[in-house]
Write a structure and sequence with these properties.
Layout (H helix, E strand, L loop, with lengths): L3 H11 L6 H12 L3 H12 L1 H4 L1 E2 L6 E2 L13 E8 L2 H10 L4 E5 L17 H10 L4 E4 L5 H14 L5 E4 L15 H9 L2 E2 L4
Parallel strand pairs: 3-4, 3-5, 5-6
Antiparallel strand pairs: 1-2, 6-7
């Protein structure tokens, strides 16, 4: 029987995506071998994580202060807005060097099963940015999954009356694939070949 503290640690590791029981146990046993000062530093890092990593009030990208390198960069094309679902996607797209516009991270993809519905999406912020910056193109860069498709269709419907082109990445990508797992070259090509996403 594992000690209670070890079981608690294992259970926390199991909350991480892709981490099963065996991997969680391996992580936990490995941490037992950490030096005392390493465990202390790790604990302090976790304790202050929410305070030290903030979200930009405009685009929701992760920042360390009120300064957002994307929103405040005067060299970026303010006529284009790319909608993604995570900060990791922003970094992935930036690595392709095929987009120099603005970003907007939505809080989640629509997934009623997980309690993430339409009402909890903050679409009004996107609409305000379209008007504020006179956005000419909104690029929807969400995962090619059922949740990503449902969210993309909802966004398209919500933004259809604005004077802006709505496009989506040209998913010559496998269905059910997250952007996080797409290689840089494929992602760059999908971005360059993005298609109009207007109502038919």
């Amino acid at each position: 029987m594992y000690p209670k503290a070890l079981l608690q640690l294992i259970n926390y590791f199991k909350k991480l995506p892709g981490v099963g029981s065996k991997t969680a146990e391996r992580f936990a046993f490995e941490m037992i071998e950490f030096e005392e000062n390493e465990l202390t530093d790790f604990g302090l890092l976790l304790k202050d994580l929410k305070k030290n990593i903030l979200k930009c009030k405009t685009c929701s990208c992760l920042i360390e202060s009120d300064y957002c390198s994307f929103c405040d960069d005067t060299k970026r094309d303010t006529n284009k807005l790319c909608i993604v679902s995570s900060f990791k996607d922003v970094l992935q797209l930036e690595s392709t060097k095929s987009f120099n516009g603005l970003y907007h991270i939505i809080e989640h993809l629509i997934s009623p099963v997980d309690g993430k519905d339409i009402d909890s999406l903050n679409i009004e912020t996107i609409k305000k940015r379209i008007l504020q910056f006179n956005i000419k193109e909104v690029i929807i860069a969400l995962d090619s999954t059922l949740e990503g498709d449902a969210t993309s269709l909802y966004l398209k419907d919500e933004l259809k009356n604005y004077d802006t082109i709505i496009s989506r990445l040209a998913f010559g990508l496998p269905m059910g694939t997250s952007l996080d797992f797409i290689d840089k070259t494929t992602l760059m090509q999908a971005f360059v070949d993005r298609k109009s996403f207007q109502q038919s």
